[in-house]
Amino acid sequence: MPAVKAQLKHLRIAPRKVRLVADAIRRKDVTDAIQILSFLPKRASLPMKKLLQSAEANAKHNFHMEDAHLYVSEIRVDEGPVLKRYSPRAMGRATLIRKKTSHITLVLEERRTAKKPQVQMSASKKNKTPKTPIVTEEVKEINKKKITLNPISSL
């Protein structure tokens, strides 16, 4: 069962913010993940959705996988290169502004649900009625104590 891998590099959103979106879709089915990303109010959700749809299309076209069985098996957000810019400050100074980028790696796999073997019951077991549990005097006393004890009244 091959894994389908898709990458998005140099996304101009900080990795810390992208990881919030990535955690929302990790180990979800592809259709569920697309629904989540459609309604998530984060800036990283649109590029992540496009990446997921691209990986899904690759899985269908290149590997002939069914989209009903696909799920996000791994999603990793790494740091990309940092763009360094300067902002002017008072008294001729300048401060550094670090514009961070992200690299996203998405891996889709096909979830195969194994069919559970059907167990055939014999004719003699089908006709038997289930046994009723035997309740002893000790069990009856314990049940009475449980019912009569009220944690609020003991205050």
Give the termini separation: 62 Å
The helical percent reads 25-40%
CATH superfamily of one domain: Ribosomal protein L22/L17
Unreliable sequence segments: none
What CATH architecture of one domain would you give? Answer: Alpha-Beta Complex
Using the coordinates above, name the CATH class of one domain.
Alpha Beta
Class computed from helices, strands and strand pairing: alpha+beta
- Please tally the helical runs, counting DSSP H or I stretches of 4 or more residues: 5
As a whole number of angstroms, the C-alpha radius of gyration is 29 Å
Major sheet: arrangement of strands: 1-5-2
Number of strands: 5
Blueprint (SSEs and pairs):
Blueprint: E1 4-11, H1 15-25, H2 30-39, H3 45-63, E2 70-79, E3 83-88, E4 94-99, E5 102-110, H4 123-127, H5 137-148
Antiparallel strand pairs: 1-5, 2-5, 3-4
What does this structure look like?
The chain is α+β, with helices and mostly antiparallel strands and 155 residues long. The chain has a domain at 4-110: Ribosomal protein L22/L17 (Ribosomal Protein L22, Chain A), CATH 3.90.470.10. Helix content is 37%, strand content 25%. It has a three-stranded antiparallel β-sheet with strand order 1-5-2. It has a two-stranded antiparallel ribbon with strand order 3-4. Strand 3 and strand 4 (94-99) form a beta hairpin. Helix 2 packs antiparallel against helix 3. It is elongated, with a radius of gyration of 29 Å. The relative contact order is 0.19.
